[in-house]
């Protein structure tokens, strides 16, 4: 095990070789892209403050409460001078076609990232293994790994690290992989050479803006989360605004429309990881069947899934809205009435709205 003094004495050539090794090790561990950047996020900080000032974050108070730790990595992890940004493909190869599901109003559409195992656990495991590989080579060094788990500007860091560019839908886009991937970071005190950003390639295309069901992308690169279906079905804890409910269709957990329409996702790569294969048939399941799940069934079937984080109440709320948007049938009416006296006021209110959609 090397001493920290040896690390500090590494010259530029040695650090360049180490950066190359890190990228090789990451590929060996199953990660699909690696970039290294410094900690200057001053432009992203200005954009974030403007976004927060507009109130676009809705109930996501955590976006504001950490102050400048989100945009100044060394304040979150003292001593940080570099961020290693990584991506991991998640698109399940065996999932039912997304458009086909959304065109089947009695089926439930669930964002493709949530069909398999909880990505937090999968990505964190990959990042930790990579950090340990680095440590085995250079000795003790300061680091922390993150994947959507702390005040970290993932897209801004990945953009600076050259993993892609920020699309007009605000997600990261990569010429070879589209946008169907997770991001993760290793904050470190290793003074590695940084990678160059890549140029943006959205051009005049605004397909993602045009297709958004709720028009949540209010301008290029500007998302009003309060209108976003992903926010409404996952982050939002209360009643879904009545005017937005009919626009949600059968999307009960997340929304992929802006990614599905993006021309760059013609080049998207499916995941080869068993972690992201479809579980519980969630790529092609009937809404009525999901509404019948008890809380115990919800917890048991979705153990190890990111979906479990929203809890049974929001799950039922979201499904009730989707059933309100589905064509009326005796089966749907019976299913909704079975939840009409649910203990949760939120569930009852959305069930009543759904029932009212089918009254003539």
UniProtKB/TrEMBL annotation:
User: Its annotated pathway?
Assistant: tRNA modification; tRNA-queuosine biosynthesis
4Fe-4S ferredoxin-type domain ranges (all copies): 190-222
- Cofactor(s) required, per the database record: cob(II)alamin; [4Fe-4S] cluster
Pfam families recorded for this chain? Answer: Fer4_16, QueG_DUF1730
What is the uppermost EC class here? oxidoreductase
Q: Which PROSITE patterns match?
A: 4FE4S_FER_1, 4FE4S_FER_2
**PANTHER family named in the record:** EPOXYQUEUOSINE REDUCTASE
Provide the protein name: Epoxyqueuosine reductase
Q: Which gene encodes it?
A: queG
